[in-house]
């Protein structure tokens, strides 16, 4: 079973890119499993169901979305193998920009859209920096100059990834994406494999439900700004 990890900011077009990719690859939808990781809510399962692809959606809720991902990814692989899928694709949205859901040796795709602002590539962090492939969407509704500046800023963060301009409506670019993803690794287990980046080192009182403000209510790993107060 080939495994592909797709991540990107909310509404960047991840689901559209994945659906166009599957159409281009002409794979049997019944041989593909999608695991969608999100924080609070998602309606993307409706789009996957329309094309006949089985999807499992998990919500991190009050827990750190990055910890939630890594706590469940091995079971996701087991689910894909037990279901007899040829492809397992994980889609992650709503993860903080502090880390990334990528695993060493597993093909990783970051989806980012031109409308998010030319400096957005410098703000996303490891999710963009550590991707093998960067799919850039919505380039058809910005100017050539904006596209070039956007690409330049991507290269300032990640100068090794393949950059593919994608159109989630027409499917333009999906052939090139499919070509690169044909080299995705076959997996039977994630045992002894490692994340590309460490998850946030934060377990504090607010992580566990505290709402009161003040140092007397703050425990665990906290980080403070130096305001140079007396």
TrEMBL record:
Q: One GO BP annotation here?
A: protein maturation
Name this protein carries in UniProt: Urease accessory protein UreG
Coiled-coil annotation reads none
Q: Name one GO molecular function term.
A: GTPase activity
Could you tell me the superkingdom of the organism this chain comes from? Bacteria
Could you tell me which species this protein originates from?
A: Oxobacter pfennigii
Pfam families, per the entry: cobW
Question: Source organism lineage?
Answer: Bacteria, Bacillati, Bacillota, Clostridia, Eubacteriales
Where does the record place the CobW/HypB/UreG nucleotide-binding domain? 4-164
């Amino acid at each position: 079973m080939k495994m592909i990890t797709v991540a990107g900011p909310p509404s960047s077009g991840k689901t559209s890119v994945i659906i166009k990719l599957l159409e281009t690859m002409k794979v049997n939808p019944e041989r593909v499993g999608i695991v969608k990781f999100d924080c609070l809510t998602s309606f993307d399962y409706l789009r996957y169901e329309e094309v006949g692809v089985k999807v499992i959606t998990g919500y991190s809720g009050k827990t750190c979305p990055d910890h939630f991902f890594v706590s469940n990814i091995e079971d996701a692989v087991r689910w894909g193998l037990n279901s007899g899928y040829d492809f397992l694709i994980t889609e992650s949205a709503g993860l903080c920009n502090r880390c990334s859901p990528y695993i060493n040796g597993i093909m990783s795709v970051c989806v980012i859209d031109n409308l998010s602002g030319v400096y957005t590539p410098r703000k996303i962090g490891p999710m963009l920096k550590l991707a093998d492939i960067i799919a850039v969407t919505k380039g058809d509704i910005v100017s050539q100059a904006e596209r070039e500046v956007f690409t330049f800023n991507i290269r300032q963060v990640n100068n090794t990834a393949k950059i593919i301009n994608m159109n989630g409506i027409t499917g333009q670019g999906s052939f090139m994406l499919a070509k690169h993803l044909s080299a995705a690794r076959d997996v039977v287990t994630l045992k002894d494999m490692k994340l590309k980046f460490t998850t946030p080192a934060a377990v504090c009182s607010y992580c566990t439900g505290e709402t009161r403000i003040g140092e007397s209510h703050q425990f665990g790993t906290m980080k403070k700004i130096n305001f140079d107060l007396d």
